[in-house]
Amino acid sequence: AKSGGRGAFRFFEPELDELMHARRNLERDMRAALAGRQFELHYQPFVGAATGKTYGFEALLRWHHPQRGMVLPGEFIPLAEETGLIVPLGEWVLRTACAEAATWPAHVRIAINLSPAQFRSKELVPVIVGALASSGLAPHRLELEVTETVIMHDSEAVFAVLAELRELGVRIALDDFGTGYSSLSFLQRFPFDKVKIDRSFVNELSSPRAEARHLARAVVRFAVSLGKTTTAEGVETKEQLDILREEGCGETQGYYFSRPMPASDIARMLRRGSGA
Ligand code: C2E
Ligand code: CA
Ligand code: CA
Ligand code: CA
Fold first, then answer.
1. With b meaning 16 or more CB within 10 Å and e meaning fewer, what string describes 244-275?
2. Rounded-to-integer distance, Cα 167 and Cα 161, Å
3. Is the ipTM of this complex over 0.95?
4. 56 lines ligand 1 (CB under 6 A)
5. Residue (of 99, 42, 104, 37) closest to 73 by Cα position
6. Given ligand 1 and candidates 44, 113, 241, which is best to mutate, with the most ligand atoms within 8 Å of its CB?
7. Best probe residue, ligand 1, of 34, 41, 60 (max atoms within 8 Å of C-beta)
8. Taking burial as the number of CB atoms within 10 A of a residue's CB, which of 1, 34, 103, 198 is the most buried?
9. EAL domain spans which residues (predicted)?
């Protein structure tokens, strides 16, 4: 459907072509990266708001591109989802993160992000069962983070998979809470154990604008009132932490405590923490 004159069509051509070219390069590079071990996981702690104790770490993908240096997931996850590459990449993440977490003290959990495409793949449950079996990680130490987008796609099928995973003892977290469009009753029906309050609200807790501050507090209160474990994301200041604690938020995560770090730094930190 070429609407507009031939001139208009040609006007867009070079840009489109460049975009397609960049995409093809990125896709080719990602396939090579998976084979060439250019991906790495960094881990960011989540910490009790009142206790200051570390309860676990979220695994976050990093790509060491041979020419471009470190590439963040925002740049490659969308294309990995579109092309289906997220399925083998996600499997690598699950296996690597579970194996790493199995070396940590038994009370420390691992949180792993899942994409909608992984839910459509049919392989998800067997892959998770396999990652748990080969690592020896206890299922209750594994938390899977999903966004509302995952549930919106095909909620009945996704509900069935989530129920199966919870049967195994795995915990489910709803990521980016407050940014989606689900109804409150939908959220109540959804079988999850934990709510992660989106960074945008945590950020507004210290806003100079009163309305923004009030909205942020309301979102935190609503998350807490669902009666699940709550984790606030993107905590950067003491002030934000204090408000979150006061509102009854259980766990916090963000640069205030730590940036995401390589596995070797986490292992060192945990050894220090246990006094070894
Ligand atoms: P997310 O799951 O919401 O992860 C939180 C993001 O916030 C991470 O960005 C983290 O580095 C960043 N962050 C943490 N604390 C702070 C803070 O105090 N301030 C600010 N400004 N940012 C903070 P990152 O690592 O770039 O990841 C971006 C997104 O990419 C993630 O958002 C997640 O949706 C996706 N992602 C990352 N790793 C994976 C993965 O293994 N699989 C899948 N499917 N998606 C992943
Ligand atoms: Ca997450
Ligand atoms: Ca999030
Ligand atoms: Ca996000």
1. bbebebbbbbbebbbebbebeebeebbeeeee
2. 10
3. yes
4. no
5. 42
6. 113
7. 60
8. 198
9. 23-274
Q: Which residue has the tokens 């199966």?
A: 164
- E strand intervals along 66-131: 69-71, 109-113
Question: Could you report the per-residue pLDDT of 247-264, keeping only the tens digit for each?
Answer: 999 999 999 999 999 999
Q: How confident is the model at residue 182 (pLDDT cuts 50, 70, 90)?
A: confident
Q: Where are the alpha helices (DSSP H) in 102-255?
A: 116-120, 124-135, 148-153, 155-167, 184-189, 199-204, 210-225, 238-246
Q: Is 176 in the pocket of ligand 1 (CB under 6 A)?
A: yes
For 59-95, the pLDDT digits (tens) are 999 999 999 999 999 999 999 999 999 999 999 999 9
Length of the chain: 276
